[in-house]
Write a structure and sequence with these properties.
The complex is a heterodimer of chains A (295) and B (101). Chain A is α+β, with helices and mostly antiparallel strands. Chain A has eight helices and eight strands. In chain A, the strands form three sheets. In chain A, strands 1-6-7 form a three-stranded antiparallel beta sheet, with no helix packed on it. In chain A, strands 4-3-8 form a three-stranded antiparallel beta sheet, with helices on one face. Chain A has a two-stranded antiparallel ribbon with strand order 2-5. A three-stranded antiparallel beta sheet of chain B has the order 1-3-2. The chains are: A alpha+beta (295), B mainly alpha (101). At the A-B interface, α2 and α3 of A face α2, α3 and β2 of B.
Chain lengths: 295, 101
């Protein structure tokens, strides 16, 4: 019962849609389409199909109005229920078609906007939108409202008082007045000058440094291994190692790398220290050890 | 230039409608019949039918029945004109040549 009622209700909506759609088409074509669509609507099976059909008819009027709105149907043919076939010629379209009206509306809107802008409408809007600019001065926060800063941590400082230089007593003239307070001495402010460039000469293996041939592993010689190791050495001013040397670029052979480290260690004391302005200084620098087979 | 010679824009949907009529060119079909054969929706079908009718490819008439005795409204029946049949055949023949070329 409820289903039938629902179907009747939906059919009513669908038929209403068809009536409304057909009425959108001007002229006698409206009556023809209404009758035609209602007849085809009756052949649709199912509520959804009927509703879809009606919605489609409503949609179809958009295209039909564009293409056939001006088509005139002879009144006789509408009333004629007989079997005569009738062609519906497409007449010349009227001036106020949908496209023309839309074009006129869009053009009018453009003209109105440009006219408004030309007459200062934009400035009026800007004045209405922009709020007055206000300059405020931010008042400093009073110190009393701030939390007290943490007490400074004072480290006890020991001042070593140099022994007083014994100076020969100066016989003062008893007539001179005695100064009760020492004069205040203010140190002159000396501008900092940029440091002078340092003449630095990097160190390296020096005189008496062992030869790589003495450390060439026998196994490497037999296997024909050769290569160049880059070793980093930290050396003091006397040419002694201050830390273990390290391989920073391998020869490709662990045996040769190990031999290079042994060589670098045994050379301690025979390194040439780095010099700055002619003075030897401690430094770290890389140097290369070449292991090559000679005939 | 007569209306029969007016060109019709050949969309896929228009071809489906023509194909439905070419199954048996002498058939007179209502919109509901064409919907069933072409599987087109009503919103697409009816503008095409009117367009082809306006171009002279179809003619239409009301069904010759008495609605009260038949118990249903009369339908609008469409039929291919000789010109429409010729043009539709040419269109499909052109497609066949294109496919088999």
């Amino acid at each position: 019962m409820t289903s039938e009622r629902t179907q009747g209700w939906m059919d009513g909506i669908a038929q209403g849609l068809i009536h409304r759609a057909a009425r959108r088409v001007p002229g006698a074509l409206s009556e023809r389409l209404q009758e035609e669509w209602l007849a085809d609507f009756a052949e649709q099976r199912g509520r959804v199909a009927r509703l879809r059909f009606a919605l489609g008819c409503y949609w179809a009027t958009n295209a039909i109005m564009r293409e056939h709105a001006a088509a005139a149907i002879p009144a006789a043919s509408v009333a004629n229920g007989g079997g005569n076939f009738v062609r519906y010629p497409k007449e010349e379209s009227t001036f106020f078609t949908g496209r023309t009206v839309t074009f006129v509306l869009v053009a009018s809107l453009h003209v109105a906007v440009f006219y408004g802008l030309a007459m200062g409408l934009g400035q009026t809007f800007i004045k209405a939108i922009v709020e007055p600019f206000e300059l405020r001065r931010i008042e400093p926060v009073p110190r009393s409202s701030l939390p007290p800063p943490p007490p400074p941590q004072l480290m006890p400082t020991k001042f070593e008082q140099p022994p007083p230089e014994v100076m020969p007593p100066i016989e003062s003239d008893p007539t001179e007045s005695v100064q009760t307070a020492p004069p205040e001495i203010t140190a002159p402010v000396v501008p900092r000058l940029p440091p002078a460039p340092v003449n630095r000469v990097q160190g390296g293996p020096g005189v008496g440094f062992p030869s790589a041939d003495d450390f060439y592993p026998d196994m490497s010689i037999r296997m024909g291994e050769k290569g160049i190791a880059t070793v980093k050495a930290c050396v003091n001013g006397q040419g002694h190692l201050t830390s273990e040397p390290a391989i920073i670029q391998s020869t490709g052979s662990p045996r040769l790398d190990e031999a290079a480290l042994r060589l670098a260690k045994s050379g301690s004391g025979h390194y040439r220290a780095t010099s700055e302005d002619g003075h030897p200084v401690s430094s770290c620098y890389p140097f290369r050890i070449r292991f090559e087979l000679r005939n | 230039m007569g209306k029969e010679n007016r060109d019709v824009r050949m969309s896929l949907q228009t071809l489906k409608v023509l194909e439905a009529f070419l199954e048996n060119p002498t058939d007179q079909l209502s919109g509901a019949d064409v919907m069933q054969r072409s599987t087109l929706a009503s919103g697409t079908l009816y503008p095409i039918l009117l367009r082809l009718e306006s171009a002279g490819w179809f003619v239409s008439r009301w069904e010759s029945i008495d609605p009260s005795s038949a118990g249903r409204p009369r339908r609008r029946l469409y039929r291919l004109t000789p010109t429409g049949l010729k043009r539709a055949s040419e269109v499909f023949a052109g497609f066949s040549r294109t496919v088999h070329a």
